[in-house]
Design a protein that fits this description.
Strand content: 15-25%
CATH architecture of the largest domain: 3-Layer(aba) Sandwich
CATH class of the largest domain: Alpha Beta
Radius of gyration: 17 Å
Order of helices and strands: EEEHEHEHEHHHEE
CATH superfamily of the largest domain: Alpha/Beta hydrolase fold, catalytic domain
Number of domains: 2
Length: 249
């Protein structure tokens, strides 16, 4: 099945590059940190989904072949998703991985009827007090690194935050592949709004998910579960179809 590469222009003029494959209802794949459209599981997933869906696998702004307009803002990334939805005909389902899942959730909340279904894999919210303290310290250090244009340090900081051993980070920094990592050139190596460790009322019960039919699936693979209760991400629309796979690998 043929994959077509094309572009859309976001609201602020940023050029967003995407691959399109398949036939059927539109599904947009939203990658997590340190990923471009070719540097994650998206291409393989797109091939599988293409049997029943038209799949859009795109480079988030500042990654891969897409443009980047500063300053970074989560709202701009949501505008990118909206531009893709409009390109797809005005409605689409979203699938997000890791921080991409958090971004997809934010988009679903803000874009209303434009988002039909939402699937999230390893969405990394955690309201544990210790995690919240670590998150605040991480954001402080990340902001300082980005302000000084030390993007390599920002990427290393993110890798440390998610548990990569120090010796592995150091080895990667001296690898020829290091400059190719998406975060070393983008304005923010991780979505600093919907992000691991953030406890946010927008992701708690009671916030309307507008026109979203419901959360189709979310998967938590952390042994203890970063999402600690099914209610933590309950859509408020009537009778949503939900599935939580604890330890889904």
């Amino acid at each position: 099945m043929e994959t077509i590469t094309s572009t859309v222009t976001s609201k602020d003029g940023t050029r967003i590059v995407y691959d399109k494959i398949g036939h059927g209802p539109a599904v947009i794949l939203v990658a997590g940190a340190m990923c471009s459209r070719s540097f994650w599981s998206g291409p393989e997933l797109a091939k599988l989904l293409a049997r029943s869906f038209t799949v859009y696998n795109y480079d988030r702004r500042g990654r891969g072949d897409s443009g980047d307009t500063r300053p970074y803002a989560v709202a701009r990334e949501i505008e990118d998703i909206e531009a893709l939805i409009d390109e797809a005909g005005g409605q689409a389902s979203l699938y997000g991985h890791s921080s991409g899942a958090a971004l997809a959730l934010e988009a679903a909340l803000r874009l209303g009827n434009k988002v039909k279904k939402l699937a999230m894999y390893e969405v990394p919210y955690n309201d544990d007090a210790g995690t919240q303290r670590a998150w605040k310290q991480y954001i402080k250090q990340l902001t300082e690194a980005l302000a000084a244009d030390r993007r390599g340090d920002a990427v290393a900081l993110f890798m440390k935050y998610v548990g990569t051993p120090a010796d592995q980070i150091e080895a990667m920094r001296h690898s020829p592949a290091w400059p190719m990592l998406p975060g070393t050139r983008q304005s923010d190596p991780e979505c600093a709004g919907p992000h691991p460790g953030r406890s946010d009322a927008r992701c708690r019960p009671g916030r309307s998910s507008a026109g979203v039919d419901g959360v189709l699936l979310w998967v938590v693979t952390c042994p203890t579960g970063r999402i600690r209760r099914d209610d933590d991400l309950r859509p408020s629309t009537p009778d949503p179809f939900r599935s939580l796979l604890q330890g889904g690998g």
